[in-house]
Specification:
Number of strands: 3
Largest sheet: 3 strands, antiparallel
Helix content: 55-70%
Strand content: 5-15%
Distance between the termini: 142 Å
């Protein structure tokens, strides 16, 4: 028999056995062959434990992936929404400000601070645009009055010469 060997055997009753052999030399003169046979049934508890561990690992992995997905969604959605609002503002669309959609805040402190700063900036920007429109409107009215006054004055001067 070889020095070390392992194999499986099926007995007449249909039971499986794991058998291992190893040579043992207690001294230079004697050689013993140690044979260990263990029925497969003895590993049933281990098999159940392994199966239980696999199920637990699979469940925990699934829960972990779902948790990671939820956290990822919670982080990216406020940033995606903020990006949409920024695009709207660059196109001079202030409907989000007027409809109060900029008042929504993320539960994540850093993103909420970013949203607050953006909201303040958009308010100031919209206010500046309104003030500019008012000035241009007044200047247009003033320029129109000046132009008509100047025209009237010129007509009066030319009419008095005749």
């Amino acid at each position: 028999m070889p020095q070390h060997s392992r194999f499986r055997a099926t007995l007449e009753d249909g039971r499986y056995w794991y058998i291992g052999t190893s040579e043992l030399r207690p001294d230079y003169l004697n050689v013993w062959q140690v044979v260990v046979a263990v029925p497969r049934e003895d590993f049933g508890g281990i098999d159940k434990s392994i199966n239980k561990s696999i199920i637990i690992i699979a469940v925990l992995s699934t829960v972990g992936l779902m948790l990671i997905g939820a956290v990822s969604f919670g982080l990216t959605m406020p940033l995606k929404t903020l990006g949409k609002r920024m695009s709207e503002v660059t196109q001079m669309k202030f409907s989000a400000l007027e409809q109060g959609r900029l008042n929504r805040r993320s539960i994540i402190k850093e993103i909420a601070n970013l949203e607050d700063t953006f909201h303040t900036m958009v308010k100031a920007f919209a206010s500046g645009i309104r003030k500019n429109a008012d000035l241009v409107g007044r200047r247009g009215v003033t320029n129109t009055h000046l132009a008509s006054s100047t025209t009237n004055m010129n007509q009066n001067k030319s009419g008095s010469r005749n």
